Amino acid sequence: MSETLGLLVGVALTIVVVGAGAYLVGVIDAAIAQVVAGEALEWNRTLAAPVRGAAFLLLQERTTTERPDAPLWAIAPALLAGLAATALALVPLGPSGAVAEVEAGIVAFGALGALVMVAVYFHGWAPNSVLPLIGGYRFVALALSYEMPLALVLIAAALPAQSLRLSAIVASQAELWNVLRQPLGLPLYLIAGLGLAFRGPLAFPDAADLAGGTRAEASGAALLLWQTARSAMLVAVAAIGATVFLGGWLGPWLPGPAWLAVKTLVLLVPLVAADHLLARVRLERFVVIAWVVLIPLALVDVFLSGVLLL
Amino acid sequence: MAGAGTGVGVRRVLAGLAGRAPARVFVVAGRDARESVQGLRLDPRLEFVDSPRAAAILLVVGDLPEPLLAAGLALHDSMPRPRATVWWIPASGGPKRSDFPGALVVRAGEDVAAAISRTQAALLLGRRASEPDLLPDTDPAPWRGVGPYGQGGTGMTGGVPYGRPLAERAPDRDGLELDQLPVGVGPFFPPFPPGFVLEAKLQGDVIQAAALGENAFARTEPRGDTMAAVSGPFARALTQPVLITELELARARHHLAWLGHALRVQGLGALGRRAWRLASGISPVRAQEVRVFSRMLEATRSLGWATASVGVIDTALLAQMAPGPVTRAAGSARDAREEDPAYIALGFESVVQPDGDARARWRQRVDEALQSLQLAGQAGERLSTPVGKIESPRGTLTDAVSPAAELLDLVPALVTGMEWGDAMTTIVSLDLDLEEAAGRPVPAA
Amino acid sequence: MAAVGAALTVFLTGVGGWLLLRWVGDALSPARSTAPQRVPFTGGLPLEVHAWSRYHARYYAMALLFLAFDMEMVFMYPWAVVFVREGVTALVEMLMFIIILVLGILYAWRERALAWA
């Protein structure tokens, strides 16, 4: 009975974190945009912006297109949100573990990352419109390229832990965080993470040169849900990154979840800032860079981490 | 009953919140509208969106020539409800009110941003009714039943029979024969200048063939007058002396405004706003800010990642073109200002870039903007000398040659074979303008 | 097993919550779809054909390369767990395996299999 109750609390907590995280991303995004644009930061407007925008979209009609694939269109944002929530549930909050304390945590995260491809592709395919369609296919090329570096840097982090469990990876960082022990790991992870949340220089499927790409035909609640799911995915990327590279919940004085929140924020800010500061790469160039530079570097990361353990 | 009451309450709370959000605007810009829209870009009450699906307000600016009007009506109807049209007439003259019935008409001198903002709030609060469709509710491609080969029955097109044809196959350079989509993009596709229509044949994300749609501005009103559509003081300077300061500040403003647009298409809207802010407050004393901004662009890789070695123009073509930022970005030093004694007295020397790609064109415009600010600071009361040609921001303008038209003609050959994103980068890097191009001289019969 | 159940519960709650929100949005602002509203957006022009097509995904060669690496990944997960116990043997074995695969990448790169535009 108490187990069921614990599960329910955990699930509710995860959903709250998803919502709060999406709001937080909206606030950070609005604040950074104002700073980059050289405007005075108006906190009242910045704090209210995500809520007002959400209210606006809920009052807007959800349009459709000629002969869309309606079920896929409905499921795409929900799938992305479900994957983001699940990734957040994998994150250990303290010594007692995560909401979903999965034995092979990093394998589970890799699997979620692969399913993001399905969600984004559905979102591009479903409206039966050219611009979203190109966006959807672009994401497949992007995903096939970032998937390997992402999995490899997580494997490198699993080596000292001798386990694929995220809690064990946190415990293995008690003396030295992975960001220092495996200096290649975090930068590669953040690049791949930007791909996973398709933002900033890797915002190929939802790019401005496609007038919004996969979301070009989305309006009203459908647009709101897609944008929040995308933000939640970014929060999940930051939280997993904080767990694997910044020691997760470990830290003195503060309780574990507080440390986790602080470290997640530390990664979230640069990830959001990338949206406003780094130009989108050419897709073809990114594919080549991913295969010829990022994957070999990730392999170097794995083997250097291995050599250090011998 | 209670459920309905709750629904109304929830709606009211949401409307209260949403009514204070920036108005989401999709712009349909007609004749003589460019400068006016530019002036609205920085208004915090407005948010310009890239797709009509995300907008609540259709902002029609100026007068729409016939083919653009048809597109404007189609875009109006594709917007989600609640929606409204604001028709802004920045110049004198009245709109044909019947084109957008129910539109709120805003005339020169009125605060258009406030009107837009008020209209959206009224829509959300239910004080203003959402506009109905302007086009008839008839299916453009009605069901024609299952075809002779079973097409339209079940399968990958969704299983619901529908009258619109599927794409035909076409050969490709890698030997695969897959579907080729004929797509007309424009005339109000945000990365493009208003009125620009690209008739592309897409296979995957590669443009296999491209042609330009007819220039709507030329079709309805052949001017035969190169100058009429050139913005700023440049047309005037062709025939009479103009303050060099005025010319050079207008050039710097033009290039920075272009930069803002180009940054937006690269997904850097906030940096784009910064460029627009620099453009709107342009003055020789602010050259340092522009210089800092230019360094920032290099540091953030805004120049480089997406633009390097994209859109290189054939040198033979370049040699035939009127000089301008695009030819100078490919290493040709020609510049009409070199022949003006007033500029020679200022020690003018044209700046060039060697590479000739989209990145070089970005850098060229930033450098020319900086150079213009320097010239404007030095020129004092000096006047330009009318020598029969003038260096406009798009290139050397004479009675017979419109650089805008020449740039437009480059597009089809240039984007053929390009990936979609590269094609957009290339088109943006040319700084096209349909209205100015429409002023091309009528060839002698 | 309980953990997987928890993960699944979170996943289904997330998916269900998003579908519920979509339903709420539809209830708050009912759609009245009309033919001119359904026309897909390409800038205001009418369409000639369906967007759905046999799309030329030009990165198919890269996708095949990915398959090879995805299989390698399956071997690497258990390898990571036993690495410290097995020591140098594990390192050398995996190194040999990976070098062969990396040579594959270099070959594909030289053949321009990663570029398409």
Which helices and strands, and how do they pair?
The complex is a heterotrimer of chains A (310), B (445) and C (117).
Chain A: H1 2-36, H2 43-58, H3 70-89, H4 105-125, H5 130-161, H6 166-171, H7 178-181, H8 185-196, H9 220-245, H10 256-277, H11 283-309
Helix pairs in contact in A: 1-2, 1-3, 1-9, 1-10, 2-9, 3-4, 3-9, 4-5, 5-8, 5-11, 8-9, 9-10
Chain B: H1 2-18, E1 23-29, H2 34-40, E2 46-48, E3 57-61, H3 66-78, E4 84-89, E5 104-107, H4 112-124, E6 168-170, E7 178-185, E8 198-203, E9 206-212, H5 216-220, H6 234-237, H7 244-265, H8 269-280, H9 287-299, H10 315-320, H11 325-328, H12 341-345, H13 358-379, E10 389-392, E11 395-398, H14 403-415, H15 420-429, H16 434-438
Helix pairs in contact in B: 7-8, 7-13, 9-13
Chain C: H1 2-28, H2 35-38, H3 60-86, H4 88-110
Give a quick precis of the structure.
The complex is a heterotrimer of chains A (310), B (445) and C (117). Chain B has helices spanning 2-18, 34-40, 66-78, 112-124, 216-220, 234-237, 244-265, 269-280, 287-299, 315-320, 325-328, 341-345, 358-379, 403-415, 420-429, 434-438; strands at residues 23-29, 46-48, 57-61, 84-89, 104-107, 168-170, 178-185, 198-203, 206-212, 389-392, 395-398. Chain B is an alpha/beta fold.
Structural description of this entry:
The complex is a heterotrimer of chains A (310), B (445) and C (117). Helix content of chain A is 71%, strand content 0%. Chain A is an all-alpha fold and 310 residues long. Chain A is globular. By secondary structure, chain B is α/β, with parallel strands linked by helices. Helix content of chain B is 38%, strand content 13%. Chain B has helices spanning 2-18, 34-40, 66-78, 112-124, 216-220, 234-237, 244-265, 269-280, 287-299, 315-320, 325-328, 341-345, 358-379, 403-415, 420-429, 434-438, and strands at residues 23-29, 46-48, 57-61, 84-89, 104-107, 168-170, 178-185, 198-203, 206-212, 389-392, 395-398. In chain B, the strands form three sheets. In chain B, strands 2-1-3-4-5 form a five-stranded parallel beta sheet, sandwiched between helices. Chain B has a four-stranded antiparallel beta sheet with strand order 6-7-8-9. In chain B, α2 links the parallel β1 (23-29) and β2 (46-48). Chain C is mainly alpha-helical and 117 residues long. Helices cover 69% and strands 0% of the residues of chain C. Chain C contains four helices and no strands. Chains A and C meet through α1, α3, α4, α5 and α9 of A and α1, α3 and α4 of C.
